[in-house]
Write a structure and sequence with these properties.
The complex is a heterodimer of chains A (117) and B (430). By secondary structure, chain A is mostly helical. The longest helix of chain A has 29 residues. Chain A is extended, with a radius of gyration of 18 Å. Chain B is an alpha/beta fold. Helices cover 31% and strands 33% of the residues of chain B. In chain B, strands 13-12-11-14-15-16 form a 6-stranded mixed β-sheet, with helices on both faces. Chain B has a 4-stranded antiparallel β-sheet with strand order 1-2-6-4, with no helix packed on it. Chain B has a 4-stranded antiparallel β-sheet with strand order 5-3-7-8. In chain B, helix 4 links the parallel strand 11 and strand 12. Chain B starts with a helix and ends in an 8-residue tail after the last helix. Classes of the chains: A mainly alpha (117), B alpha/beta (430).
Chain lengths: 117, 430
């Protein structure tokens, strides 16, 4: 359990390095999923570093282990579908006009804002 | 939206805008995992109205004066929940162990238990509720509610334990106690011999004297032990800033000089009541507190409750005087004045001494208590020196009034100092 509690702090730099590596690999023309994976790794690194920083000084092992498990599962459930989406749809090329793209972006932002409320 | 959620949302929007501005797909693909994380958070976000949480609080005294607080929150909802609990610790009660906040991943029907220990000095500790924040597992969206979990506890000051005090008041009360009354009667210490009177117990006959004086009978007398009136005055005027303990203007450590004064007053009252005396109390501070003379456990609780609520104030003239003072401290009483020697201390002490009372001054030394912080730099050292001189002058003025003074450095034990001050001066009472 003690090792598990140290996991976020240990994982965070690894994921950060992976993010940089993936970003370097995802140069223009590269596969879309590498970009998505890079951002997912960066967000996971940031999130786990924050989680480790917020851990109590004298944790209750069972409670912290469960919290960690829930958090890691939520990270996987949240981020991996995005990477999978990029891998699945990355090859698509839709010749949309700029105005349509802008309108879609606005609709997405409004939907997010409304959902968050 | 939590701070974490807002940051993620900002990054998503920035990436999408960057994709639009550059007319390239890569930044948009980078936003994809973040968007799915946000979508997952929205799907699992708790609703404040739908939270089914109940809280209960248990407050327990521990040996050694500590107080253990346990807050139990039950999750009666149908879905798992990430819950953060934050309890407001009452002011003046430092945390000794545990934490007043924590996070739990709760399944339906499970309890979260927040447990911590406080080390209060005195006063009324009041809790109203506990703040519960439910969020999605990544803490991007949260809903906060305050759950009612009331609790209250009054911590009574006891002060350091003092041995029975050698009180020698001018006047004692006709009730059995522990103070030698200089009156013959039943007691333990030999007092004198007088002629036998009808009704005297035969076992107190002085057979030796009767052998020397045939035809006459003598009875041994013992010194009666009685109780006395004892008053305690706690002078908290001029200590309001010092009681804050640190910061601008607060020069003293931890609880401050006022807390030491309260503990000393409590210790004196407890010791005198344990000896069976009638004790009264006057508190001068933010609000004047009075407990009229009485004895026994109920009186002890009254005095402790009054001291528990005592608060210091800025300097102001003492109002208590005249007939009310006479009712509080009967003639011939011994009055312990616990004072840091405010500017008008001498006139207050003279008023206390009127009516044939004996006054014993117990003065916690606030100058030395604040010396380390005060004496920094040339000006600080000069100020410290001036404060010491001022205090010595006031102590000397009181000593010239023939009042015993306990110059109490608060890290010293109070018991021997008070006993030394109460020791009869050569040729009479203290």
């Amino acid at each position: 359990v003690r090792r598990a509690l140290r996991l976020p702090a240990a994982l965070a730099p690894l994921l950060a390095v992976a993010a940089v590596g993936l970003a370097l690999a995802g140069r223009p023309g590269a596969l879309a999923w590498t970009w998505a994976a890079a951002s997912a790794a960066a967000v996971a690194a940031w999130d786990l570093a924050r989680l480790a920083a917020g851990a109590p000084d004298d944790p209750e092992p069972a409670r912290e282990a469960r919290l960690l498990a829930v958090h890691l599962r939520a990270l996987a459930v949240g981020l991996l579908p995005g990477v999978a989406l990029a891998a699945a749809l990355g090859g698509l090329r839709l010749p949309l006009p700029l105005l349509a793209v802008l309108a879609l972006g606005l609709v997405a932002a409004a939907a997010l804002e409304r959902a968050a409320r | 939206v939590t701070g974490r959620g807002a940051a993620l949302l900002a990054v998503v929007l920035a990436l999408l805008l960057a994709a639009l501005a550059a007319r390239r797909a890569e930044p948009a693909w980078m936003a994809a995992p973040l968007l799915t994380a946000l979508a997952a958070a929205v799907a699992r976000a708790p609703d404040a109205a739908g939270l089914r949480l109940t809280a209960a609080r248990r407050v327990q005294r521990q040996p050694g004066g500590e107080v253990e607080v346990t807050v139990t929150v039950r999750h009666a909802g149908a879905t798992p929940l990430l819950l953060r609990l934050e309890d407001a610790v009452p002011a003046g009660a430092p945390l000794a162990a545990g934490a007043a906040a924590g996070r739990w991943a709760l399944r339906p029907g499970e309890d979260a238990e927040l447990r911590y220990t406080l080390r209060p000095t005195r006063g009324r500790l009041v809790w109203s509720g506990v703040r519960a924040t439910a969020s999605d597992p990544l803490e991007l969206l949260a809903a906060a509610v305050v759950l009612a979990a009331p609790g209250e506890l009054q911590v009574l000051p006891e002060g350091p334990r003092l041995r029975p005090l050698p009180l020698r008041p001018v006047r004692t009360l006709p009730s059995p106690g522990s103070i030698p009354a200089r009156v013959g009667g039943s007691g333990t210490e030999f007092h004198g011999v007088r002629e036998y009177q009808v009704g005297d117990a035969l076992r107190w006959l002085d057979w030796r004297r009767m052998a020397r004086h045939p035809g006459q009978a003598f009875t041994k007398e013992f010194e009666q032990e009685q109780i006395a009136d004892v008053g305690v005055v706690l002078d908290g005027r001029g200590l309001a800033q010092l009681a804050e303990g640190g910061g601008e203007g607060g020069r003293v450590e931890d609880a401050g000089v006022f807390e030491h004064a309260v503990q000393a007053a409590a210790a004196l009252a407890v010791a005198c009541l344990r000896q069976g005396n009638r004790v009264s109390l006057l508190v001068l501070g933010a609000a004047e507190g009075r407990v009229y003379p009485g004895a026994g456990r109920v009186q002890l609780r009254r005095i402790q409750a009054c001291l528990a609520e005592a608060r210091p104030s800025a300097f102001g003239p003492a109002q208590a005087a005249g007939p009310s003072l006479a009712r509080l401290f009967p003639a011939g009483a011994i009055v312990f004045a616990v004072t840091a020697l405010a500017a008008d201390a001498t006139s207050l002490l003279l008023r206390l001494r009127s009516g044939g009372r004996q006054v014993v001054v117990v003065s916690p030394d606030l100058v030395e208590l604040g010396a380390p912080a005060r004496g920094e730099g040339e000006v600080g050292a000069l100020a410290l020196r001036a404060a010491r001189v001022e205090r010595q002058l006031r102590l000397r003025a009181i000593a010239q009034l023939r009042m015993p003074v306990v110059d109490w450095k608060v890290d010293q034990a109070l018991d021997p100092l008070v006993r030394a001050a109460l020791r009869p001066a050569r040729g009479g009472r203290p």
